[in-house]
Amino acid sequence: VRRVRDLGEFGLVGRIERIARPGARGPVALGIGDDAAVLRLPPGRDLVLTTDALVEDVHFRWRSETPGRLGARLLAVNLSDLAAMGARPAACLLSAQLPPDLPAARLLGVVRGLAAAGARSGCPLVGGNLARARETSLALLVLGAVERGRALRRGAARAGDRIFVTGSLGGAALALARLERGGRSPRPVPIPRLRAGQALARLPGAGACIDVSDGLLADLGHLLRASGVGAEIDLGRVPRPRGFEAACRRLGLDPGRLLLAGGEDYELLFTVRPGAPGAALLRRRLGVAVSEIGVVTRRGLRVRGGPRPIRPGTPGGWRHF
Amino acid sequence: VRRVRDLGEFGLVGRIERIARPGARGPVALGIGDDAAVLRLPPGRDLVLTTDALVEDVHFRWRSETPGRLGARLLAVNLSDLAAMGARPAACLLSAQLPPDLPAARLLGVVRGLAAAGARSGCPLVGGNLARARETSLALLVLGAVERGRALRRGAARAGDRIFVTGSLGGAALALARLERGGRSPRPVPIPRLRAGQALARLPGAGACIDVSDGLLADLGHLLRASGVGAEIDLGRVPRPRGFEAACRRLGLDPGRLLLAGGEDYELLFTVRPGAPGAALLRRRLGVAVSEIGVVTRRGLRVRGGPRPIRPGTPGGWRHF
Fold first, then answer.
1. Among residues A76, A133, A185, B299, which one has the fewest Cβ atoms lying within 10 Å of its Cβ?
2. Closest-CA residue to B213 (of A30, A246, A9)
3. Which residue among A47, A98, A211 sits closest to B41, beta carbon to beta carbon?
4. Do B321 and A87 touch (CB under 8 A)?
């Protein structure tokens, strides 16, 4: 087995460059191999920048995920943040901290998965950095662009807005629970809602937007705090995968808990002004299933049909530390 | 002592936001606290993106560096890459992987040092990510801008170009050697040659450029490979700090080795076309000391006055793995 230390930094960078090059077109004036990457974007755009990391034994285990899926996941979780801003991806950079005895094929597999997913999403890998470390951590930086002044923000909700969510929630938490109980099917790689976010950014009457990575209540909480408002949502209207309740019961899980606090679904949670299009028209505009789950209020957070009273400040969801 | 886990992600992000906010003006349309940062740059610019990381016990030790200096260093090593492209800084994002029991003051100290240095360099901290890990690693992403088509590249050297370096080399390696032998004075925080790089990008007759982070021969090697050329340099003309040879002798170090292979000086190594201004005029234009150390040839690398024959492919310098 060839290790990271056997190939060395420059051997690895050369291989990464060859993997990434085919996707590096479009806005890329200068890709991997110089002191920095150079991009040329169309005029009249605001730049959108975000970064997210996956750490070994915290966010993934080599045993339970192929390197290619890991690379695709790393890109997806970052693209989800771009989607929540209504931005179009432009390029990404990988900062990889690696143990010297890591099999080089793992890193190159991550890069392959990342580059392939990046080519599909218009988000080429244009640079990065390799550093020695005791454990693997992979930080990805993603750059996107949105029409000037059109970025969707967490803080733009107003009392009276209607609250929507794309797709369905709880599925990722269910898959993780299955995996933890010895299940064989791998965690699904999330599909970032890029087109939906971009369509929402163009929609007259769009309010605030956030992606649901930490759990519905946690991320709704972020949105409400940033906007200085409250909300009332209806658990019965929170969209869930088919057969969700039965699957939860088989595993002894509380479906309401997974819907409200399960993370990593990477759907978009957004608000629209009262006079804006309803779910049917939104679905057509955004090109994805959308469900209306509640309304923005002046203050507080009420969950109708929730499994127990929700106290402010304890929204559940993923804890990073 | 308050630990990272005591403050939690949102407690830390709130503190980081308060530290970083005063510097977040200029191109920053939306800073820390949303799904992504939003920047609005002047038109007619190419974007320049680079990332570099500092890993605990590999690139730094908490015992021998204050958090503030570490933050300033993290920014400086990244800005040096922007300088080598001739770019002006615009913003940075911090991806911090942290053990939960890390004293929170260390992270906040890093952010303070980073934000203060960023405010001085026009490079505000606009976003990032915090993730749990077993060891601390800090990856910084820096975005800059350069006039369209003006970015300095490694691959632009031509046979006949004259080779220059800013400032002096060997000083960082000497400081590190002193520290390793029990010295008390901390490693100097490098000063990225931003203005020199920006002036060089505007200079008619500028050739290739790279920053000297891995060591003169290693980085010259990168530049020559990217350009498909060779070089002849003169060790006697490589600029060094005052009293360098005597200080090396006291520590039993070979000064030639430190000049050729010592890393982390973060000076600019660049070439100019044969008819371009000489050292005196370059010095004035670039606003920094510059020394002519050799000439670009068709192939090979010769070092006059070198301590031993230089074999291609073994240029010395910092090894990352």
1. A185
2. A9
3. A47
4. no
Read off the pLDDT band of B319 (50, 70, 90). low
Can you list the alpha helix ranges (DSSP code H) found in chain B?
4-20, 67-85, 104-121, 171-180, 194-202, 216-227, 244-250, 255-261, 279-286
Task: Report how far residue A316's alpha carbon sits from residue A314's, in angstroms, rounded to the nearest whole number.
Answer: 6
- Average pLDDT (A18-45) is 87
Q: Quick one: residue B31, left, alpha or beta (phi over 0 = left, psi -120 to 50 = alpha)?
A: beta
Q: Which of B34, B102, B267 to mutate to test the interface with A (most CBs of A within 10 A)?
A: B34
CB contact under 8 A, A132 and B49: no
Residue with tokens 């106290």: A311
Taking only the tens place, the pLDDT of each residue in A59-83 is 999 988 899 999 999 999 999 999 9
CB contact under 8 A, B50 and A58: no
Are B46 and A33 a contacting pair at CB < 8 A? no
SS3 string, A226-294, reads: HHCCEEEEEHHHCCCCCCHHHHHHHCCCCHHHHHHHCCCCCEEEEEECCCCCCHHHHHHHHCCCEEEEE
Name the residue in chain A with its Cα closest to that of B223.
A34
pLDDT tens sequence across B222-245: 999 999 999 999 999 999 999 999
